[in-house]
Amino acid sequence: MGTVGQNYKNSAFLVAIRGGLVLLAAAALVSGCARPDGTEARRPLEAPPAPAADRQADRIRVQAARLRAEQARIAAARRWGLKKVPLEAPPAPAEKPRITTRDGFEVDGHEEKELPPVFTTIPTRHKVVFLTIDDGAEKDPAFLRMMSELKVPYTAFLSDYLIKNDYGYFRKMQRAGIGLNNHTLHHPYLPALSYSRQKREICGMQDVIEKQYGTRPALFRPPYGNYNEDTLRAAKSCGVRYAPIWNEEVYVDHWEYREDDQRIHPGDIVLSHFRGREDWKGTMPDMVRRFLDKVTAEGYAVARIEDYL
Length: 309
Known about the structure:
By secondary structure, this protein is an alpha/beta fold. The protein contains 8 helices and 11 strands. The two termini are about 30 Å apart.
């Protein structure tokens, strides 16, 4: 918002003085309209509005750019063997939803100690889901190309012992706008460890991500989805604000569900892993095809989880 009086240059000024306001219109007219030699100064002219033809041309350029982008997505969907073009997610919400721990997933004193919430779904009325991919074992260049060409967002949760042989692969991912988050240094079963050892695993991975990628993550996913109070206290001490887990998991050849209805729901977090033929009956692009074909057929778009937090 502009400073009071800034749009009144070369016209009347309102001058606040102790005891009241004095309007110095006459003085302003003299000082604003006359030069020292007594000749009248010309007021600057306002720029004329853009002609209607120019505004129409701008609208046409915007529409043409959108059409080119949509044509590129159609071509990418065909090239990567998708049944349909992935749906485009709605804009990120201006007002972020309130994130709370899922019922039954609390630890003692969870809310009182303001520990990071553990959740499997983000509250939203939109038909969106969130793809999250764990660990970092497989580093498939085709996966990076596929996700970039399709413009599909996802979030990575990384473990150092699996990514340290190629930090650069995930740097390319980060340059494409993908969030890189914490999945511990060595992927241990955390509840079996002391508080101090859990803190080393979590804070140590924060340090690695900060050193390699320039940021300390706000998101942490405990390995196997297992945690206790010490886990969340340690995570909080390391700067973690959220502990998302998942509601479904997608593989190259099937889905697994947390809910009894065996369905996906608005705001669900979907888990997968960086895996290839050594572990799966297929590749990461095969997993993405299975994921996108299902969510698109059911009317869901893929959104970026960080946009909702």
